[in-house]
Structures are given as structure tokens and as C-alpha cells.
Design a protein that fits this description.
The complex is a heterodimer. By secondary structure, chain A is α/β, with parallel strands linked by helices. Helix content of chain A is 23%, strand content 32%. Chain A has a 6-stranded mixed β-sheet, sandwiched between helices. The longest helix of chain A is centred in the middle third of the chain and has 16 residues. Chain A is globular. The N and C termini of chain A lie far apart (78 Å). In chain A, 35% of the residues are buried. Chain B has one domain. In chain B, helix 2 crosses helix 3 and helix 6 crosses helix 8. The longest helix of chain B has 29 residues. The two termini of chain B are 32 Å apart. Classes of the chains: A alpha/beta, B mainly alpha. Chains A and B meet through helix 1 and helix 3 of A and helix 1, helix 5, helix 8 and helix 13 of B.
Chain lengths: 402, 260
């Protein structure tokens, strides 16, 4: 934890081949016996939380970690902080680091904010003199007024978090590890925290950031790592990785795109599903007609407020136009069995570009999604350059001469 | 050097927090530090001196008996306070194990230090009481705190071993309560070690509290001199014990985060 003046080329965080197996014991007693046995007898069953993870975060970089719950993100952070030891592999952090795994985890409820600042800051690596010097700054940042000298058990949860964040951020770490800590507090405080982190970053701090908010990752990080089942699935530019992750999560990754509808395994529990979708053309010129043919099957005729929607989106996901049969009061069949509807655009007003078509089945006026096919078809419109933009809006020019 | 300063700062904070949390939330506050041992002394003196009429060979008055009893009780309380609270030391602080980077090995040390402070206050009460009863205190009583200091490695060993095992074996805390009661009556607190029958001499030979109790008495309320050789032996054995327990703690601490 000592500040070492390492060469600039050395990464601030290196993780080399880290594997973490959680032995699954039937009882704590069994675990005790295995710890006491010389050489440590291997448990019969293990759960692999991390599988040969290797990562390097260069000095001054902000890296985001994304992934589903249980992908190993928190385990990785815990290993980095030293609260959990890896089964194999090694980690190294160069410089003073502060970890916001859980804000205020080290607070004692019976003690005043001031006393907890001293306790917590010394846990984070500050000496008494350093804390003395920063106390005023911490107090101002937390902005909890006279509560600073009250026991923290009298705090609201917001005040608690503010004080905890104020302490952590004032340790001025070289490496900051944040585990979803920013998803707390009101918007104003969150912005204040982000500003402060931004300032740390400008001074060259390295930040590792776990978040479920892809927007935060994109806005905040230069690079990102997508973890899945204990492994690094994808690492690279933050926006790129975040987009691939989102595509994957909503089932529209490039490999899933254009998937033939027939190949989908349809669970037996689904009350309704889309059977086929066909677009009348793939390449077209502006103002040509387009028809999307949709057939769907209803298993459970008791579903309420059934509707079909078709959306046209840009390849960046921008929703251009998405009407549905409920909003436009089109009665569609919802008896048991297969049915067919067509969505016809007599004159497509889109300008040159590639667009995707999504089709969805919903109930309850669109609240519950029964089936949704993302990018089930693609259309490419080509035309000589005649306007900027996405869509042709009917318009007139008038020239007024004096 | 820097780490060392940090650790000692952290230790001082934890200790003052520990001491304050015992007495701060109560209305009488630090008065309890003095009042509690005095009340225990009163009850034991009444029951064993006044009702059971227990007498040590060289004590004549109930007041003398009370002093001898209190000297033994003080050592026992130091021991039992650590013993009974040890199983919950780590279990009670899951955040320090899992959520923040914290030297958990320090938690047992803090508890022993806090118990030592209580024991030193009791010792002061003992000396004041002895002076009040007999009008004088022997000069060698100045060395009495060394007996409590000598107990530190033994207490650290107990705290490390029991707190680490307590993480895995939750029922150990029940057992420690029983063990403390057993030790209270099997140690020479209410009776002199010489009154234990030869058949049961193992109770004296293998009871780690006998030497500190007897030597503390020899330095304060009973005729001296103290046997420093015996104390040194006890101390060396305690050091080996503490070192072994620390190794056990370090080994078991690898699994703390997985269990808590």
C-alpha cells in the first residue's frame, strides 16, 4: 500500500491469470477441517467465480467493468482490494488505493460523523495529521451540517452515504476502485461525486469502475471489460464494449441478428409468439412501397389487449417510427391458432441508409412483451444525394421578393 | 515506518472506541468501571465470607478475605472477559472482513488491550482498598501491574485462537460461557490452592491462571516475595502459545470471507 515511484510504463493495476474457486462445503465445520489439514485437502466440489482473468489498467486510465450479476465482477474487485485471496494468479496495485466497495461499511453507528471520519480514513490509509488537514474539506463536501457531530445512527441513508463518499474521495488515491457506489444519493450529489472523480482523473488517477449503468460507463470510461461467467468476454473501447453488451443482453448481437425466425426455440409457456416475418424487399429507393408480412400464433386466447407493433430503427438504435395496432385501433385476431397481418408503407419517406425492423407482440396495451424480434429484417435505401437527414418531410419553399 | 504509524493510530482509535462504547451509552458512564468490580466484590464477600464462612489460612477478618478474593477475581475477570467475548470478535464484524481492507488480526488485540485497561483499574481499586484496610501497602505492590502485563501473550493467544475458530464453529460461544463458569470455581479464587486435594492437583498444575493469581497476591495483599522465576516460565510458555495461536489465526483467516 506504500506509494512507490514506479516507472510510468508500469500499469497501475495488473491482474495476471487470476482464478478464484469457491469450495462448496456442506458446513463451516467441514471447511475448518480442510483449512487445518496440512497441504489443504481439495474439496469435492468447487464453484469457479473467476477463470484465468488477466487484465492491465494503464496509469491514468478509467476502465469500466460490466456484466450480469454473478459474472465475477465483485469477486474480482474484492481480490484486488485484498479482502478475498485468489486461488491462483496474482494482482498488483501500484500506488495508494481506495476502494468504495460499500460506502460506509466501516462506520460505527454509535459514533459521531467526526469520529467515523477518523476511523474510516485511517482504514483507507491516512495518517492522523493527514486527516486533520482534510477534515474541513470532508465536512464541507458531505454537507450534513450539525449532524457531523451526531452519532451516525441518527443519519438518513443519504447523509450516511455522503459522509462515506466524502471520506473516500478525500484520501486522494492514485487508484480508485468503485463498485456501484455511485448509484446512491440524489442527482445533485451524484453529480458532485462525478465532478470530484473527474478531478481525480485529471490529476492522473487510475479508476476501475463497476456499474450496471451503461450510460455511466460510456460517459465515464475510456475502456471497458465485459465479464461473463468468470471470464473476460470482451475488452476494448468503452462505448464499443458497452454497446456489444447491450446488444447481447437484449438478444440482438450481430450473431443473433437476422436469425431466422423458425430456428428459435419457443418455450411452451409462451402465450403467443411470432412465427414468420418477411419484408417485401431488402434494397429500395426512397418513396417506394414496403410491406412487412407478419404471422403469429396464439396459444392462450385469454390474453388481454393483444397488439402487434412494428418499429423502424436506425442502425444506431434510434427509434424512427413505431406504430402498433392498439394505438391505431386496428382490430387483429387473437383467437387460438395462427394469424397473419401485413404492415404496408405505400411510400417509404426514409433517406439513404440502412435501417432495421423490429416486430413485437404485446399485451395490456403494450405493457407486457410477449415476443420481440429485434432486427428481424434490414432495409437499405439508396438514392442520389438529395437531402441531409433521415426522413423526408413534406415541405415547401417560398421566396418573398420585396 | 509509515505503515507502522498508521497501524498504531488505527489501534489507538479502535481501543478508545472500544472503551468508550462500553461506557458512553450508559448514564453513569465511566463510573461503571469502578462500580462494577466493587459490586461483584461485595456480593462474593457476602456469600463466601459472610455466609459460607470461607477463610484463607492467614486471613482473620472478612475484610482481609475480601482483598484476597478480589486479587484472584481481578485476574479471572481479565481472562474471562476475553474468553467469553472472543468467539464473536470476528463474526460480529463481517464488514471488516468482507467490505473494507482491514487488519482483522488487530480485533483480538484491541479486545485484550481493553480488558487490560479494566484489569488495571481493578488493580488500582485493590491497592486503594488494601491501603484503607491495613493502613499500608508494601512497596513491592508497585510491581503488581507486571503480572497483568505478563498475562498479555496468554490472553492474545486465547483471543486469536477462539475468535478464529468462532467463525467456523458458531456453538463455541456457548461453550466458552460454560468454560468461564467452570474456571471461576476451579481456580484458587475462593479458596487457597493448598486446599485442593492431592488427587485433583492437576487442577492447579494445568490451570494457567494459578500462577498469575498467586503472584499478584504475593505482590499485594499476601506475604511476599513473588516468585519471579515461576512468572518468567509462565511468560515464556505463554509466548510460545501466543505465537502458535497467531499462526492458527493467519491460517484460518484465509477462509473468513468465504464463511461470513
Amino acid at each position: 500500500m506504500n506509494r512507490k515511484d514506479a516507472p510510468v510504463t508500469e500499469p497501475a493495476i495488473s491482474i495476471a491469470g487470476v482464478t478464484k474457486d469457491y469450495p462448496l462445503f456442506r458446513s463451516p465445520r467441514e471447511r475448518l477441517v480442510s483449512l487445518l489439514k496440512p497441504g489443504g485437502a481439495a474439496p469435492k466440489r468447487t464453484f469457479r467465480a473467476l477463470d484465468e482473468v488477466s487484465l492491465e489498467v494503464p496509469r491514468g486510465e478509467t476502465m469500466g467493468i460490466i456484466g450480469r450479476n454473478g459474472a465475477g465482477k465483485s469477486t474480482l474487485l474484492q481480490i484486488l482490494c485484498g479482502t478475498v485471496s485468489p486461488t491462483r494468479g496474482s494482482v498488483a496495485i501500484r500506488g495508494r488505493f481506495a476502494a468504495l466497495l460499500e460506502l460506509g461499511a466501516g462506520f460505527n453507528p454509535d459514533f459521531s460523523g467526526r469520529e467515523n471520519v477518523y476511523l474510516n480514513a485511517s482504514l483507507l490509509g491516512l495518517s492522523k495529521a493527514e486527516i486533520d488537514g482534510r477534515l474541513q474539506g470532508i465536512r464541507e463536501f458531505a454537507d450534513i451540517g450539525d449532524f457531523f457531530d451526531q452519532p451516525v445512527k441518527t443519519y438518513s441513508s443519504g447523509m450516511y452515504v455522503r459522509l462515506a463518499f466524502a471520506v473516500a474521495i478525500h484520501t486522494e488515491p492514485d487508484v480508485l476502485i468503485i463498485d456501484e457506489a455511485l448509484s446512491v444519493g440524489d442527482i445533485r450529489f451524484q453529480m458532485k461525486c462525478l465532478e470530484r472523480i473527474e478531478a481525480l482523473r485529471r490529476r492522473g488517477a487510475t479508476i476501475l469502475f463497476v456499474s450496471h449503468s451503461l450510460e455511466q460507463i460510456k460517459r465515464f470510461c475510456q475502456t471497458a471489460v465485459w465479464m461473463e461467467a468468470g471470464k473476460v468476454r470482451l475488452a476494448g473501447d468503452a462505448t464499443f464494449v458497452a454497446d456489444r453488451f447491450r446488444d447481447h443482453e437484449i438478444g440482438t448481437g450481430p450473431e443473433a441478428a437476422m436469425a431466422t425466425v423458425e430456428q428459435r426455440a419457443v418455450g411452451h409457456a409462451v402465450p403467443a409468439f411470432i412465427e414468420t416475418v418477411t419484408a417485401s424487399k431488402e434494397f429500395m429507393a426512397p418513396f417506394e412501397p414496403l410491406t412487412v408480412d407478419i404471422s403469429y400464433c396464439i396459444r392462450d386466447p385469454s390474453i388481454d389487449g393483444f397488439l402487434v407493433g412494428v418499429a423502424i430503427k436506425g442502425m444506431d438504435g434510434q427509434h424512427i417510427f413505431g406504430p402498433n395496432t392498439y394505438l391505431e385501433r386496428v382490430a387483429i385476431p387473437h383467437t387460438q391458432g395462427s394469424h397473419r397481418v401485413s404492415y404496408h408503407v405505400p411510400s417509404m419517406p426514409l433517406l439513404a441508409g440502412t435501417y432495421r425492423i423490429d416486430v413485437g407482440l404485446f399485451t395490456e396495451k403494450g405493457l407486457v412483451c410477449l415476443d420481440y424480434l429485434s432486427e428481424v429484417a434490414r432495409i437499405t435505401i439508396s438514392a442520389p444525394y438529395f437531402s441531409e437527414g433521415v426522413v423526408y418531410i413534406t415541405h415547401e419553399w417560398h421566396v418573398h421578393e420585396q | 515506518m509509515r505503515d507502522h504509524a498508521r497501524w498504531s493510530f488505527l489501534f489507538r482509535q479502535l481501543l478508545s472506541r472500544e472503551l468508550a462504547s462500553r461506557y458512553r451509552t450508559t448514564s453513569l458512564g465511566t463510573v461503571w468501571l469502578v462500580l462494577q468490580p466493587l459490586m461483584m466484590l461485595g456480593v462474593y464477600t457476602l456469600v463466601f465470607g459472610g455466609i459460607f464462612k470461607v477463610r484463607w489460612s492467614n486471613t482473620t477478618s472478612t475484610a482481609d478475605f475480601a482483598l484476597v478474593l478480589f486479587a484472584g477475581l481481578l485476574v479471572f475477570n481479565f481472562f474471562s472477559e476475553v474468553l467469553v467475548s472472543a468467539p464473536a470478535l470476528i463474526v460480529g464484524q463481517p464488514n471488516y472482513v468482507k467490505k473494507v481492507v482491514f487488519p482483522v488480526v488487530m480485533l483480538p488485540v484491541v479486545r485484550v488491550a481493553a480488558a487490560l485497561v479494566t484489569a488495571l483499574i481493578s488493580l488500582l481499586i485493590l491497592l486503594v482498598a488494601a491501603w484503607w484496610v491495613s493502613g499500608s501497602v508494601p512497596p513491592r505492590a508497585m510491581l503488581a501491574p507486571f503480572v497483568l502485563v505478563e498475562m498479555i501473550p496468554m490472553m492474545l493467544g486465547v483471543a486469536w485462537a477462539i475468535s478464529a475458530l468462532g467463525v467456523y464453529l458458531r456453538d463455541i460461544s456457548q461453550f466458552m460461557g460454560i468454560l468461564a463458569s467452570v474456571m471461576l470455581f476451579l481456580s484458587p479464587i475462593f479458596f487457597p490452592p493448598s486446599s485442593i486435594p492431592a488427587k485433583l492437583s492437576a487442577l492447579v498444575d494445568f490451570n494457567p491462571l494459578v500462577i498469575p493469581m498467586q503472584q499478584l497476591r504475593a505482590l499485594t495483599v499476601q506475604p511476599g516475595p513473588a516468585d519471579w522465576w515461576l512468572l518468567s516460565e509462565h511468560f515464556l510458555v505463554s509466548i510460545v502459545f501466543a505465537w502458535t495461536c497467531l499462526a492458527l489465526f493467519r491460517r484460518l483467516s484465509r477462509g473468513f470471507a468465504d464463511v461470513l
